[in-house]
Amino acid sequence: MRSLSTDTLTALAQPSVPLVQLVLLDFAAGAVALNSSTWDLVWDGITYKGAYGLGTISTINDSPGEIKGLSLTLSGVSASAVSLALDGGDDWQGVPFYAKTAILNSDFQVVDAPTDWSGRGDVLSLSEDLETCAVNASAESTGVDLLRGSAMTYSHADQQALHPGDMSMEFVVDQTGQPVIFPSKEYFYK
Questions:
Q1: Which of 57, 77, 103, 111 could lock onto 81 through a cystine, CB 3.0 to 4.6 A?
Q2: 102 with 112: CB under 8 angstroms?
Q3: Predicted confidence (pLDDT) per residue in 40-56, tens digit
């Protein structure tokens, strides 16, 4: 359970609590940080640029037993940004993606911003009509990693790769398929 700071509790006690959505895309060339307000906000040493009205984020829908992705749409994109999106499609794959809800105080400064969703970039696409263009980016949740199996096996070779010199798995292959014979109950009465 997470405890809240005094500043956060004070901000939440206001009659009206301003909330802002923060999005952080952590590209290798540098982070892209945007927020849903009209002004820049600073949180955790990162300046989130105000992008109000330029884009949308799909609703975070957590359901038990389901791991759902998230999509981002950036509308009103210029031709230069479209060419960057087309060239950077491969860069989007696997980019760390964080969505946070920032709690602001009465001075509109970020007091707390817990992470609502985290994942990695998946597919980048474009949609256009005669006048405007939009960049659509989807991301998959980091929860998907829990569903992936491990390539490691319970073998001597894998154990040596993890812990060189550990001989605990040396005879696993020799013992595979061998019958295990337990003594009869009379053996224990001797």
A1: 77
A2: yes
A3: 999 999 999 988 777 77
